[in-house]
Amino acid sequence: MEQNTNEEVVLVSACLLGQPVRYNGGGCADPALVLALAETEVIPVCPEHLGGLLTPRLPAELQGSDGAAVLNGCARVCDLSGADVSAAYVAGAHAVLALAQQHGATRAVLKQNSPSCGCGQVYDGGFHNRMVAGDGVTTALLRRHGIKVESR
Ligand code: SF4
Question: Is residue 14 within 8 Å of residue 68, measured between CB atoms?
Answer without folding.
Answer: no
